[in-house]
Design goal:
The complex is a heterodimer of chains A (about 210) and B (about 100).
Chain A: H1 2-16, E1 18-20, H2 23-39, E2 42-52, E3 58-69, E4 73-80, E5 84-89, E6 92-97, E7 101-105, H3 110-124, E8 134-141, E9 144-151, H4 154-157, E10 160-167, E11 174-181, E12 186-196
Antiparallel strand pairs in A: 1-8, 2-3, 2-12, 3-4, 4-5, 5-6, 6-7, 8-9, 9-10, 10-11, 11-12
Chain B: E1 2-3, E2 9-14, E3 20-27, E4 30-34, H1 43-58, E5 66-68, E6 71-76, E7 79-83, E8 89-92, E9 99-101
Chain lengths: ~210, ~100
């Protein structure tokens, strides 16, 4: 009877095709991700963001470009279906739409400080090892590894159920990020045409 | 936002980075606010949103400026603008872009 229960318990994991790695293997992978993240000084890519909402039958697709330069410069720019730019340059955040521009000092705004840190960590894969915001597990599916992040802090737990970060085989770059919200909505961001450590001009991150 | 049977409406408010703020439904002249994002999930916020959305969704397809008490709705080009109590303003702009259907 006990054997039957064990078999029944194992079946769902096997059928889903996803396997959680052993603690030792997870540690090894996290070290690799961390090491590759440390080598990255800049990153640029195009992205496609698909939002699936439980209330609606349609998905929403938006596209744009992302530029990142260590230690703390990030330009996340949507071009379709709306113009929207999120710019982080040191302590300054600028949010720009076609109709308005808003400047925020990250040091004065705890939530923004955390959000920008999380965005940078998710995009680069760095900081997963000892993240104050997420507990990380490494899983394998169809030969590819991905990190499953569970929020630790109350504010993030209220929004996200889990965040999954998918890596390329050599862990040199993130290929996609999937965010599942508490409500069941999902956001999938696929990165493509990714360039690592290509020179980026500081003017890209200039705050108006 | 989508129309359903018998004139009801369902919708989701998300920010540009895809984070949902809340869902809403509008049926038989009444709005319901659902699944409000954690930090905003307070009874007085839900109440303000419900009252504002009751007004907005009831007059969504009218073309003239509407004013009732402290609530006012008007149109700028393709946008629908609304200002309500507590100095809250909304602007609804039609999305010109890509959608996929499940």
């Amino acid at each position: 009877m006990r054997l039957l229960a064990i078999i029944l318990l194992l079946i769902p994991l096997t059928l889903s095709g996803q396997n959680k790695l052993t603690a030792e293997k997870q540690k090894e992978i996290l070290e690799k991700i961390d090491a590759e993240g440390a080598k990255m000084s800049s990153m640029q890519c195009e992205f496609t963001q698909t939002k699936s909402m439980k209330m609606l039958s349609r998905q929403m697709v938006s596209q744009g470009k992302m530029y990142f330069k260590k230690p703390n410069r990030l330009l996340w720019q949507y071009s379709s279906p709306y113009d929207y730019t999120f710019l982080l340059n040191g302590d300054n955040v600028q949010i720009k739409t076609s109709k308005s521009t808003q400047n925020i000092n990250v040091q004065e705004n705890k939530i923004f400080r955390r959000i920008t840190g999380i965005i940078v960590d998710c995009i680069t894969g760095a900081g997963l090892k000892n993240s104050p915001d997420f507990s990380a597990e490494i899983w394998e599916k169809d030969g590819a590894y991905f990190a499953r992040l569970y929020p630790k802090k109350k504010e993030l737990k209220q929004i996200y159920e889990v965040v999954e970060i998918f890596f390329n085989p050599s862990f040199t770059m993130v290929s996609s990020v999937r965010m599942v919200e508490k409500s069941g909505d999902e956001t999938l961001v696929k990165l493509n045409k990714t360039k690592i450590n290509a020179p980026l001009k500081d003017e890209i991150f200039a705050v108006d | 936002m989508e129309s359903r049977e018998q004139g009801s409406v369902v919708g989701t408010v998300i920010n540009e980075m895809g984070v949902k703020v809340f869902d809403f439904t509008f049926e038989n002249g009444k709005a319901r606010i659902l699944n409000v994002i954690g930090p905003a999930n307070r009874w007085f916020i839900r109440r303000a949103l419900r009252k504002d959305f009751n007004f907005i969704l009831a007059h969504l397809f009218e073309k003239d400026e509407i004013k009732t008490g402290r609530r006012k709705m008007w149109f700028e080009e393709d946008d629908i603008c609304f200002s309500g109590r507590h100095k809250i303003e909304y602007r609804f702009s039609p999305l010109k872009g890509q959608y996929e259907t499940d």
